[in-house]
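S., here's the first fold you wanted:
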Amino acid sequence: MNTTGTVLRSQAPDRDGNPSNRFAREAYAVHAGEQGWIALNEDDARLAALLGFPIAKIEEDPLPPTPPTTKERWAKAVKALRKAGVATRQNVSACCQGCAEPFKSTKSFDAETTPYAWNFGGQGMALKWAENGKKALANRDRYGYGSWDVNDITIYINHGNGSAERIVEAFRAEGFEVIWDGEQHSSVAVTVPADLAPRRGRSW
């Protein structure tokens, strides 16, 4: 029967020769009364064997969690909006003044009652992402006339039927800078880190 016994923790020295706790791990089940060594790699296992300890387990150091990209955070905010009952469209190329136009093909959409949100995608204002998803790509035709670098762009989200508060909440929850003056006729502005799109070839 296996029970939790005594498990030694590797104390391999760091670069300065001081004991390091970087190999600390939760106890691993070994036979009762035995001592076991949780080795994090083959070198650690060889060290334990030289010291005369039985190896309970070899376990590589796990990689740290990868933080979500800006694109992933944006997608999560959009998903939260839809879950909150807001009809949402992105990069709409129709006339920017046609508030209900982006939802003409949406089933059960009532322009008078359904909360909605969308960003205009025409005239170089579409939201497009770099391949790694960390930054948006600013259209050079719109942002590239000066010699300055583009650090971010503002995406203006049109809204109606009481959805503005939910838009603000969803994007702020994902760490975006959001500006809205509280007026229902005013767009919600979301700041996104960006670089100018490559000079050769279009990215959208």
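And the second, which I think is the more interesting of the pair:
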Amino acid sequence: MKLIVGLGNPGKEYEHTRHNIGFDMMNVISSNYNLTFTFSKKFNAEESTGIVDGEKIIFIKPYSYMNLSGEVVRKYMDYYDIDVEDILVIQDDLDMELGKIRILHSSSSGGHNGIKNIIDNVGSKDFTRLKIGISKIKDIDTKDYVLGKFSKEEREMLDKTYDKCKNIVSDFVHYNINELKQIYSNLNNN
């Protein structure tokens, strides 16, 4: 069993903001696999379960707000007895060019508070992350920037990135971390 976590913040005001790239990517994945998300009060997350290439996958969007995402991830791990190595977290990254992607495993939070909270709550950094670049404009306060919406041009660029990443789930099921890193590093060159 695998757990796929898209990071973001719940609520209309946060939809399609830079910090909600994980939620947006989960919507792309759900469309790709014909999944429907429903809210689970027990876990405080939108969730969907499916079988991908013979593997049971739980897809979640934590509703605890970004900085407390680890609490929700921990609940799923405990309830379903999911190993930290079977978790993929999809997140935004300020330090990467818009639309660029990178796979990491067993890495520090890099200053991302949602990732830091997951590491703190699961007691390990030995999970896989798909980072999607959102760039950074130095003249804008970081909080305002990450909670801002993408321009039409930026959204079109991200749609291409999402399309390239739509098979991330089946790739996560089939490949080890080194193979995943190779696959997704090549995508940045296309």
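Why I say that: The longest helix spans residues 152-165. Residues 75 and 162 are 28 Å apart (CA to CA).

Talk tomorrow,
H.
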